[in-house]
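quick q for whoever's on today - can somebody do inverse folding on this one?? i tried earlier but teh output was garbage lol. tokens:
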């Protein structure tokens, strides 16, 4: 069971990549084929089972579009 679950508000994401750069498990990536309504490439989770629930991604997000749920 993963320790955490990461979700994004894709429509508010500006695709800055700070979350990708700061993920210690390297499970986030910028989807260069998918744009939100504002025209930004969104962030995806490649391996959700490897999330450790650290919330570094959410802390680094300047627009607060990331939610991290920690499993107990």
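ok took a stab at it. sequence:
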């Amino acid at each position: 069971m993963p320790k955490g679950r990461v979700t994004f508000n894709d429509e508010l994401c500006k695709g800055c990549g700070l979350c990708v750069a700061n993920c210690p498990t390297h499970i986030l990536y910028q989807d260069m084929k998918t744009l939100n309504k504002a025209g930004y490439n969104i962030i995806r989770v490649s391996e959700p089972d490897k999330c450790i629930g650290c919330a570094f991604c959410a802390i680094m997000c300047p627009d607060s579009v990331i939610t991290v749920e920690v499993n107990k």
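fwiw The helical segments are 18-22, 56-60. also The radius of gyration is 11 Å. so keep that in mind when u check it
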